[in-house]
């Protein structure tokens, strides 16, 4: 039952063992992670094009993604609002940000580009499918799986060399509290959403364990449950990030923990400039710790819950 979990966690563990001291090599690893994500999402789009009754399947994908997103957001916002009422945390300080995005559209550009990559894969599959045949979709699935293994090695290496020591994580109680609140409320939402999505309880938990890390959740879910559910996971977590860009400036001064926490795993990277820009430098270490913990939890939780399918 756990063999699939071990096979996918092994490259993540091997990557975590690698200590990198060269800044140039770390930059190369970061670019390789981005490239791998684009490749896998492209292959996921090709696989989506191979589904029978594509139009109705895409309609189902959108409906399921909206349902999961709505339930998860309701649970997350309620839990984070409760937490923000009970912890002493307020935005403030200098909002100086180096290379911060100048508009919400600029901040969302990377997220929207990933949607374009999936759409490009679907288009490629529709154009080449009648020519190449079923071999196109089989090859896309095979390539996506092997690029996934490479990506997990690189992500493990990134986490090891992120400059975030375990002591610093454990001592930042606010970041830890935000991460735990977001994770628990997401999992409860996954349990509630599972029967509504015609999924088993463990599959619902897996779908809710992306915590905003849309590129990885789409890849891991798609590898186990097929491209349709991979697409649901992708758009569920991507929409979280897009809403976070809008939500953070509106609530960070009144409900700081909610603003930091809702971005999930992205609070340590994509939504961090927006948090710093509107909340000040005091919010940065809390956001980084929260995002790091959720990034560390997401892959093993997704794989563990999926492994329970038998």
TrEMBL record:
One Pfam entry name: Lys_export
Keyword field: Membrane, Transmembrane, Transmembrane helix
Transmembrane feature ranges: 6-22, 29-51, 63-83, 112-131, 143-162, 174-199, 211-235, 242-264, 284-306
Source organism, top-level taxon: Bacteria
The keyword Transmembrane is annotated on this UniProt entry: yes
Identification of the protein by name: Lysine exporter LysO family protein
Source species: Vreelandella lionensis
């Amino acid at each position: 039952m756990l063999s699939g979990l071990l096979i996918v966690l092994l490259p993540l563990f091997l990557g975590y063992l690698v200590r990198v001291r060269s800044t140039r090599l770390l930059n190369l690893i970061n670019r390789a992670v981005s490239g791998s994500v684009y490749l896998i999402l492209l292959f996921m789009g090709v696989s989506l094009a191979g589904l029978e009754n594509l139009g109705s399947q895409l309609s189902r994908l959108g409906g399921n993604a909206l349902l999961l997103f709505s339930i998860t957001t309701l649970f997350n916002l309620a839990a984070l609002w409760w937490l923000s009422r009970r912890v002493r945390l307020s935005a403030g300080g200098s909002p100086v940000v180096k290379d911060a995005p100048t508009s919400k559209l600029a901040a969302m550009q990377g997220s929207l580009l990933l949607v374009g990559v999936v759409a490009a894969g679907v288009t490629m599959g529709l154009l080449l499918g009648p020519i190449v045949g079923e071999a196109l979709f089989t090859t896309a699935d095979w390539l996506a799986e092997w690029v996934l293994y490479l990506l997990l090695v690189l992500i493990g290496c990134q986490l090891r060399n992120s400059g975030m020591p375990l002591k610093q994580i454990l001592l930042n109680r606010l970041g830890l509290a935000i991460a735990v609140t977001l994770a628990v409320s997401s999992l409860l939402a996954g349990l509630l959403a599972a029967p509504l999505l015609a999924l088993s309880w463990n599959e619902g938990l897996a779908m809710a364990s992306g915590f905003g890390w849309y590129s990885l959740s789409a890849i891991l879910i798609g590898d186990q449950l097929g491209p349709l559910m991979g697409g649901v996971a992708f758009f569920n977590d991507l929409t979280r990030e897009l809403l976070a860009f809008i939500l953070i400036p509106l609530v960070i001064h009144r409900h700081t923990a909610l603003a930091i926490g809702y971005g999930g795993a992205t609070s340590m990277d994509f939504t961090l400039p927006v948090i710093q820009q509107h909340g000040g430098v005091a919010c940065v270490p809390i956001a980084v710790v929260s995002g790091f913990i959720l990034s560390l939890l997401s892959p093993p939780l997704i794989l563990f819950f999926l492994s329970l399918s038998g």
